[in-house]
Known about the structure:
The protein is an alpha/beta fold and 396 residues long. Helix content is 45%, strand content 15%.
Amino acid sequence: MRTGRTIMATIAALALSTSVAFAEDIKVGFNGDLSASPSALSGQAGVLGIQAAIDDINAVGGLLGRKVILVTRDDLSQPPKSIQNMSDLIDNEKVTVVFGPTNSGNALAWKHIPNQKHVPSIGMVGSGTDITKPGPGGGDNYMFRVSMVDRSQVAGLMVYAKNNPKSKKIGYMAETTGYGQGGLKDIQEIGDLQGIKPVAVERFGVADTDMTSQLNKMKEAGVDTIVVWAQGTPTGQLLRSMEKINYFPLVLSSWAADNKSFFDAAGEKLAELPIFMRTLTDDLTPKQQKLFARVSAKLPSTPAFPFVVHGYDAMMLYAEAVKQAGSDDGQKVHDALENLKGTYDGYAKTYKAPFSATQHEALTTADFKWAHWQAGKLRSYSDDIIKKLTAADFKI
C-alpha cells in the first residue's frame, strides 16, 4: 500500500509540476487563412514574422521570465470557421492575444469576441477599414492593427485619380466579399470627399474568371480610369478580361495586386498595368534585408515579405505592452497598448505611441509606398503626380 501511495504521490507531483510549467508559458495565437484563399500566402508570411519575433524574445529569457508559445489555427477563409477558431484559441488554448486574420471579412465576423473576452487582437494582414473601429454601443476596443488600412490606401488612389489630367471618367469595381465591399464603401465615400463622381460601378465574384460583361459596361461609359478593390487572383483575372476585349484603362488597385497570386493570374505583361500602395518596396533597408535573409528559405513568396515585417512588429509591440503592464492580463495589456511609452525600432518603422484610446492603427498613409510590377519584380513607383501630392491632399 505504501508503495502504491508513493507511486501515486509521485505521479501527482509530476502532473502538478507539468501543469505549473505549462501555466508559466505565455501562449499567443494566430487565426487566419493559411491554405485556402488567394491571400493565404500573406497569412503564412505573417506567421513566419510572429514566430521570428517569438524566437528572439525567448532567446533573451522570454516575457516576464516566461516562454512564449505560438498556437496557430487555419480558418480556411471561412467566417464560421474563423469564429470557431477564435473561441477555441481564447477559451480552450487560453491565449493572451490573437494575431490575424488574413481576410478582413473574417475579422468583422468575430471582432465582438475579443471585446467581450477582453483579449487583445492585433491584425497584421487584413486591411478592412472597420476592423479597428469600436463596436456598437462603445466600450473598450480590443482590436489593434500593424498593417495597411483600406481607407488610407483608398485616399491615396483617389487623390491620384483626382490630380491625374488623363483621368476624365472614373469607374469603380470590387469583388463581392466583405473585403471588396468594404473597400468599395471607402472608395465611394472618399470619392465624394474628393468631388469624384463615378460614371460606372460594377461588382464581380472572388472566383470569377471572366469579367468582360462588367468591363464592356465600363468601356461603353467611356471609363478611362478604374479603381478596383479585390484580392490578388480576381484582380489578375480582371486584367485578363481586359485583354480579351482590348480595353486597357488606367488601373488603380488595392495592395492585393502585390500578391504572387495576382502575378500568377495576370501574367508578367498584364501585371505591370496597375499601380497601388504597400508598406515595403524593393528598396529594403539593411535591417529589413537581414530579416529577409533570415526567413527567405521559408517565405512562401518574395512579395509576401511585408507580412513577415507586420507579424514581427505586431508581436514585438505586444511584448512591449506586456513588459510595460508587468502582466499578460488582457485589460492591462490593452491599456498599455493604448499608452505605450518610449519607442520601439521596428522593421516597418520606429514606433512612438503607435496607439491611443481613439486610434488603433500603428501604420498610416505616411508609412505607405507606391509600387508596381516591372519585369516580374515589385518596384517602387513614382511620377509627376505623386511627387506633387502633399499630406493635405489625402482626405480620409
